[in-house]
Design goal:
heterodimer, A: alpha+beta, Dna Ligase, domain 1, 4-stranded antiparallel sheet, B: alpha/beta, Rossmann fold, 9-stranded mixed sheet, 33% helix, globular
Chain lengths: 450, 236
């Protein structure tokens, strides 16, 4: 949910308390699509208690859980009781859900997203169509699903493409739709209980090695590789020690997983004897196999096994957030013109081809300060450009400058920017990137052409 | 005396070429290539640029070399402990950001470890890093890692590193100056396989086009006639 909407919702809940002039303090977290998807997958796995077939709807971002409840409502005492039980179970986990029960996946999705008693009365949007198509249909006066039913199917297909007909047929049960299944968590767990509490690191390492081998064997049997391993070391008279190991690509290679684990174990301090060690592959996926090229392709990319292994090793030691890829954003504000995304666990769909840069080599500095540094001592020439400035106790006299390049953006954010940027060259030839804030007239250093 | 120096230079060049396979990568700027023994950098070696301070242009030359190294295939690793690397600028250098791995270590030890690991990986074309301090042992480890993996280690160091020992096969001091048509960078070869005491190379980067050219080009007639002796030919 975007921040303004979330704030409005918070204020709405805050309503009754406003009289006491006390406002809710919001806790703001950055949206992490990877964590979001991961949590939804975990919820899907948890939902196997209600249905043997659970999946996530194919939408971006995924936000709908699909449960095949054919023939099982009677086990819960009827459809209404089943819905109530599912809703209550989610509420116990502090999660609000909207449940739609339908004859087909499409109908259930529509009823969960749009309120109504009958599928045909629901708006066209409930058919999971692209917004542009919905707009066109609305303009033609087709506002609810019922309006589409009497229309000739061939003409619908010819005019709007196969997707409209497919979605309509799927909703009405005239075309099959498969639930992309999330499997119940397989038992990719290995555990070792010691007869006596153990303190020797050598023994602990040896046991972990054996457990990894055992886990890899069961993963390989199902052609799976682990993406994330969770370790739990139960200690005597103390809280268990837990840590996780992530992989860039699914792996069932025991020696590789051991190397990643070893990097974590090096940093682990065990203050109490260990009585039990358990390893669980909490995220796994099909092992990807790559056909070898007939002719050796020298163009090695990030998908090469050696690079994958390097990414895993570095992530294991430095953390997921430390190994990243750059994604350029089309935002004119310099500090928002890019973002970093972790390579391990990052969404692959957000990969964007490098667009042609609108800048030439010396338009932007290679080093940008995390936060612009306010200049305390400086002088400005008659034409508005800086004539000298002091940075880190050194005085720099400007001999040439390029600019101003006005960047005025971000008005939709709470704090927009209005800046005049100058590229300056000092008498010694050093080049810097300065700007004058048009809001308060102060000068800042934002980068250096290193 | 001159004869002895030439003999020593030849001996050094021969030893260098025996040690490493003769695979050179362009430095990314032709005027600099012309002054280097193998018309570029050797794969599996460390290249060190010592910048004359903030805003000196040393990283710029590092990025041009990284771009050149990645053209032959392989990924690029940027070990950026200061977290100041600005990707949109790198995009202007035509670096393939899709094929670039950025590492943000938090400690000096982790930074050194990350550089070493990346250099050891033979599918990495180049590693760019800005280490402020490197002990002789750590530097030697990096050199061995580069030799092992065959990657190019491009290290951009602060001025204080000039007096420290180095295991880089090529060490350059970059200092800027004011150019008439662009940004002028003076590159002094502090260490370069058998070449000692050479004159600084003056490069000029065009402000409009970003083209890197020799600040003092030889006259065209002299180039065509080949009247000015080429330093490489003199060595051969």
């Amino acid at each position: 949910m975007p921040l303004p909407e979330a704030t409005a919702l918070g204020n709405q809940y805050d309503g009754p308390r406003r009289s006491s002039s006390k406002k809710t303090q919001f806790h703001i977290e950055t949206h992490d699509p990877f964590e979001d998807h991961k949590t939804l997958e975990e919820l899907a796995a948890w939902c196997h208690r209600f249905s043997p077939l659970v999946g996530l709807a194919e939408e971006e971002p995924a936000e709908t859980l699909l449960l095949d409840v054919t023939g099982i409502a009677s086990l819960f005492g009827g459809e209404q009781a089943m819905n109530q039980q599912i809703e209550n179970s989610f509420l116990q986990q502090h999660l609000m859900v909207r449940i739609g029960l339908g004859e087909t996946v499409g109908a259930a999705w529509a009823l969960a997203h749009y309120s109504g008693l009958h599928l045909l009365e629901l708006p066209i949007e409930a058919l999971r169509l692209p917004p542009a198509m919905v707009e066109v249909l609305n303009r033609l006066g087709l506002e609810c699903i019922g309006n589409l039913v009497p229309l000739p199917r061939d003409e619908l297909k010819a005019r709007f493409g196969a997707i409209l007909l497919q979605r309509l047929n799927q909703a009405l049960g005239q075309q099959a739709e498969i639930i992309p299944q999330i499997h119940a968590p397989a038992d990719f767990t290995a555990e070792w209980t010691f007869e006596h509490p153990v303190t020797q690191q050598r023994v602990i390492h040896e046991v972990i090695k054996q457990l990894i081998e055992r886990l890899c064997f069961s993963l390989l049997k199902q052609d799976n590789g682990s993406l994330q391993l969770s370790y739990r070391l139960t200690c005597q008279d103390s809280e268990p020690v837990t840590f996780e190991v992530g992989c860039y690509r699914p792996s069932a290679d025991a020696s590789h997983l051991w190397k990643l684990t070893e990097a974590q174990l090096e940093r682990l301090v065990l203050r109490h004897p260990v009585i039990c060690i358990s390893i669980c592959s909490i995220r796994y996926s099909r092992l990807s196999r790559q056909q070898k090229e007939l002719f050796d392709d020298s163009h090695v990319r990030q998908d090469s096994p050696l690079v994958t292994s390097l990414i895993d090793r570095m992530t294991s030691r430095l953390g997921r957030q430390a190994i990243v890829r750059c994604i350029l954003q089309s935002d004119p504000q310099p500090e928002k013109a890019y973002r970093y995304e972790p390579l391990v666990g990052g969404s692959r769909s957000s990969r964007r081809a490098n667009s042609h840069s609108p800048f030439s080599l010396l338009d932007r500095p290679l080093h940008l300060l995390a936060k612009p540094v306010a200049l305390k001592n400086y002088a400005v020439a008659a034409n508005g450009s800086p004539s000298w400035f002091q940075y880190s106790s050194e005085q720099h006299t400007v001999s040439r400058h390029w600019g101003p390049e006005r960047i005025e953006t971000g008005w939709w954010r709470q704090r927009g920017v209005r800046r005049d940027y100058y590229r300056v060259e000092t008498e010694e030839g050093f080049r810097f990137w300065l700007f004058r804030s048009l809001q308060d007239g102060r000068w800042f250093l934002h980068g250096a052409f290193e | 005396m001159d004869h002895k120096i030439i003999q020593l230079r030849e001996l050094l060049n021969r030893k260098e070429s025996e040690k490493k396979p003769c695979q050179s990568i362009s430095s990314g700027c032709l005027p600099l290539d012309r002054h280097l023994p193998q018309q570029g950098f050797q794969r599996g070696s460390l290249i060190e640029w010592i910048g004359g301070g903030v805003g000196s242009g040393a990283s710029l030359l590092g990025m041009l070399a990284a771009r050149s190294a990645c053209r032959g295939g392989g990924a690029l690793v940027l070990v950026d402990r200061g977290q100041s690397f600005y990707p949109p600028a790198a995009n202007a250098y035509q670096l393939d950001l899709q094929n670039t791995i950025v590492v943000h270590p938090t400690t000096e030890k982790d930074e050194c470890w990350a550089i070493e690991q990346a250099l050891r990986c033979s599918d990495i074309a180049a590693v760019v890093a800005w280490p402020k301090r490197l002990t002789s042992n750590a530097f030697r480890r990096l050199q061995l890692a580069a030799e092992h993996g065959g990657s190019l280690g491009l290290l951009v160091r602060p001025t204080t590193a000039r007096n420290e020992s180095s295991w880089a096969s090529l060490r350059m001091l970059v200092s800027p100056s004011v150019g008439r048509q662009g940004w002028r960078l003076s590159v002094e070869l502090l260490r370069c396989g058998g070449l000692f005491g050479t004159k600084p190379i003056e490069l000029e980067i065009d402000d409009q086009t970003g083209e890197v050219r020799d600040a003092h080009p030889r006259p065209l007639a002299a180039q065509l006639a080949g009247t000015t002796p080429d330093p490489r030919k003199a060595r051969a």
